[in-house]
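Shipment paperwork, digital attachment
Item: protein structure file
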Amino acid sequence: MSASPPAAPEPRPLADDELDRRLAPLGPFERPPRLAVAVSGGPDSLALVLLADRWARARGGCVRALHVDHGLRAESAAEAARLAGWLAARGIPCRILAWRGPRPGSRIQETARVARAALLKAACAEAGILHLLLAHHADDQCETVVMREARRSGPDGRAGMAAIRETGRVRLVRPLLDVPKARLEATLRALGQPWIEDPSNRDPRFERARLRRYAVESPPDLAAIARAGRERALREAELAELAARIVRPDPATGRLELDARGLAAAPAELAAALLRRAVATVGEGRYPPAPAAVDRLLDALLASAATRRTLGGCTITRRGDRVRVEPERRPGRPVPEGPAPPLLEAPFAAMPLEDERLDAARVRLPRDVA
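Attachment content:
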């Protein structure tokens, strides 16, 4: 009779010094630090806010929890009150942000994510808090890469979520991207802290659950994701330098103008990345245009000094040495006024903050999990 394989070791709680080591390269933080943490009530964000609170208090600072009540389930208000009570007992203030307004008939979770992002950023800006901590962890990172590979997102997609994302007045900070979810649950058990389970995470009506199962069964290599992230940071630095040299925003209209000669002189991959970012920024699309479509656009712009194309909600026109990217004029669509949003916020700049990871309705899963 063969011996049974040894049992897997129990996950270890995350220690205070482990969070310290993860936050150190993601600063600088004020002295004393003031942080906000997006808290759903689930184990990931609840563990993060408790650890972040201890980290900030040790440095004379403070943490504010931000919880968005979407009002999509009858019990959501009671869950929000329960969460606020748990945190109050530990001396952590919690602001509950209610999502008001009409609900769409379809893609409700996607719409809720966009609303959540806006509410969280607005609350941070109102409180004068620069750093918003998000509890995306290693399991989420694997899901992200699976999703982006299914969308053929290229090398930036294979890098997964960035640990830092600058979004104007708020910095999004993800210190747990290499920490398994099981360790965060172990942290709460060690602290005697219950948490709230979101039934939608297991609801078979949502393709997210299928995607999550596939990521668990065929997980990407986290070390490879980290390497891809470092390579992406280098590309971002090159992209920022190119943008500073050849991009000129038009504050009156929100258009961007690019120097065609500088675009032609840049390496093709870098020129295409800049053009893709410009279209995503001006067009205000949920996602950047497909790389193949951008490659075709770049070829057309470089082939003729008099070119006009449309892509991603934009009209792109070359006249001589200038390439203009402006919102496409469509019947019933207002033309945006004022300056364009920042061109170089982050990779996948047009995506909502919490779901760079999942928009399952756009993902083609492998046949065995479809």
